[in-house]
Amino acid sequence: MPLLVTSAAGVNGDGYGALLAFDRDGRPLGVFSSDPRIADPRGLAVAQREQLLFLNSGSDRVLALDRHGKVLRDTGPIPRLNPGGGTFGPDGRYYIGLRSARTIMALSVTLDDAGERMLPAGIVPFPRGFAFNSDGVLFLSSGIGPNGEGENTVVAFARGQNLKASRLVSDPELSPLDLVVAPNGNIVVSSEHPFGLADAATSLREYRAADGDLIRVFSTGAAGEFRQPRGLRFGPDGVLYCVARDEVMAFDFASGRCLGAVVRYPRLNGQALAFFP
After folding, report:
1. pLDDT (0 to 100) of residue 164
2. I need a labelling partner for 5 at 20 to 30 A (CA). Which of 70, 87, 190, 254 fits?
């Protein structure tokens, strides 16, 4: 089962702007799909029942690919979509973060509808990763924008009360980049604090979903540089993976121990990862 990673083009053009594949030993397998509709790719998620990979493209569209990298479904260009991360919700629809509109949109898995905005535009000043738990609660992380607006936190939306946000996390050392729900029901957030600084402290931070209390902090120690941590994903082996600049790091979630870099790849500029098929 290959590991797929989206590599952004980068503000200075120093990334690959492609969907890259690696084998289980971290060896590069090349570009997974050369379809020209994949540009500056962002979020990834696997539709297990259909065995399709959903990809958010910087060309303002969402694509669904088969295990050979062929695009089978395409929303077509959606003006000003600017999609970020993506995940499947409890209703089976594909949810994407809208960077410019600062909200979340849901699309049918057929990708043939106009989509539905699940939250008002600007619901948080600077949205980053989001995920649903088994009860349908939506957790949305929010950071501080380029102009200093916003705050570093995680908010929660109870199912059926999507317009009513509850601030969950208050952690002065958090600057979130992505968020995932762990097998134990807690939430894990990748953090770079202060965001964007060369000497920022990077970590993965686990919070109790019920009250937002910080449970523990995962760090790599000397196992890797762990710069610019972004996308999080639990693998089929139960290991927690985080894509970062030039590498993908693995963590034993039970013990919190860093297992080291499973991928080292210069200029990776990783955004999201998935195991597929």
Report:
1. 66
2. 254
Residue 95 to residue 112: CA distance in whole angstroms = 14
Is there a contact between 65 and 71 (Cβ–Cβ < 8 Å)? yes
Helices assigned H by DSSP within the chain: none
What pLDDT sits at residue 86? Answer: 97
Other residues' Cβ atoms within 10 Å of the Cβ of residue 219: 14
What are the per-10-residue average pLDDT scores of the chain (277 residues)? 91 78 95 96 95 97 97 97 95 95 95 93 88 94 80 88 76 96 97 89 96 95 88 96 96 96 94 94
CA of 85: how far to CAs of 49, 225, 276, in Å?
A: 20, 24, 17
Whole-angstrom CA distances from 158 to 91, 106, 161, 162, 249 are 14, 16, 5, 6, 32
Please report, as a single letter, which amino acid is at residue 244.
A
What pLDDT, on a 0 to 100 scale, did the predictor assign at position 156? 93
| Burial class of residue 160, CB neighbours in 10 A (0-12, 13-18, 19+) | exposed
C-alpha span between 114 and 78 (Å, rounded): 9
Task: Name the nearest CA neighbour of 270 among 241, 248, 240.
Answer: 248
131 Cβ contact list (under 8 Å, min separation 6): 87, 138, 139, 179, 180, 181, 187
Tokens read off for 267: 């200029």
State the Cα–Cα distance between residues 225 and 162, nearest whole angstrom: 38
DSSP letter for 92, please. Answer: S
Residues found in the chain: 277
Alpha carbon distance 30, 141 (integer Å): 32
Q: What is the largest CA-CA distance in the chain?
A: 47
* Per-residue confidence (pLDDT) for residue 15, from 0 to 100: 78
